[in-house]
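To whoever is on call:

I kicked off a structure prediction for a single chain this morning and the downstream step that reads the tokens threw a length-mismatch warning. I double-checked the sequence; it's 438 residues and nothing unusual in it as far as I can see. Pasting both halves so you can look.
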Amino acid sequence: MHLQGVFVKNFRLVALGLIFVVAVLLHIGFANEVLKEERTLDSGVKVPVSAHDVWQAYADGVDDVALGAPFRQYGMRTNVGGKEFRSTLVEFPFGSSAAVDSVEADSAGNGGVGSDSAATDVEEGAGVESAQNVAGAKPAQVAVGAKPVRGIILYVHGYNDYFFQKEMAQKADSAGYAFFAIDLHYCGRSFAPGDRRGDLRNMREFFPELDFAVELARVITKERAGHAHSLPLVLIGHSQGGLLVSFYAESRPAEKFAALVLNSPFFDFNFNWLVRNVAIPVVSELAIYLPDFSIGSSGNPNYAYAINRERYGEWQYNTEWKSEERPEQFLGWIRGVYRAQLELHKGFHINSPVLVLHGDCSEDDDEWSYDQMHCDGVLDVEHIEMWAPKVGTKVTTETVAGGLHDLYLSRKDVRDEAYAKTFNFIDESLRGLERADD
């Protein structure tokens, strides 16, 4: 009887062990299939954007609904894995601004700077429409008295965000750059009833709309200035947009972007070591089976209090597009962000000059305090500093004392410093391209 009991007990242990091994093997097999599917969203080779779609988007451009004239907006549609996404390109027509104090309008080298950037996939020639050939398109002109355009800037916003920073556009324009920003799908101008605002499942799902935005920006600038295809293109990304811009540039080496500027990039979750290195990876695996499982809204509204002029800040924006409380979050969003961060942590190989900017302190207390007015209230600046060297081969990291999470929304003296660092870096990067061409 005793031997029978021992046998039954051991049999159960063996059976449980076998069940566990089978479950692990099934998970590994299924997880590998999911990883393959995720990678197929983008092969790393840019798919040429339809010339007709680009010109039609240009033709359908209207005055921006959020900022008004002279800002323009252009709707873009892309298809990823059989799913259609809407995104929006916002333009500040080159030459529209007056000089802004904290930008040196007379900086050296204001002439057009050549670049060895890969030529756009939408070239004028056989079978490609020009603006005049698309119904409704009206070739725009550079404002009278504007200096020659030096390059193109494309700005990518962060999580729970959209483009509303008029000052950024004006400063870029004053410095000689044609300025564009994208509202990614499910965000800002691209948000529609029924969308899960700010949601994602894979960072690669944004690549086609960034491809579209790059080509459309080049076409528009060519129509205005006449030589966009030889102009250098700079990417600026904030927070989650900084992570996205890095991942995108890593996947598009042929583009040879002139420079990247990352404003408090989302290189890691702002949790302790145990949560970042144990809990988040486990949740990421669970998300394979439960991507639409809601975890509600995380974080506190203190950062919003620090920037919104209805509270303690100085900025007015659409709080339905950039809310005090973060949008509802899902396990699939955590996985999408974590997988991109994991790729970064392994090390990117971006050869373009990269500037990583962050504040000098972090503040994540749930109770409001004045520290929220001069620290990063969203991310840990030490994490940003730690992971910055992984972005590429030419990374410069700068600390902006007193900076908020979005450095360009900090108090005036602080954001002026952030802008000065930004445009000095871009200018020097372009001068480097010019020297390489000589």
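Update from on-call: the warning came from a stale cache, not from the record. Cleared it. Sanity check on the structure: Residues 1-39 form one domain.
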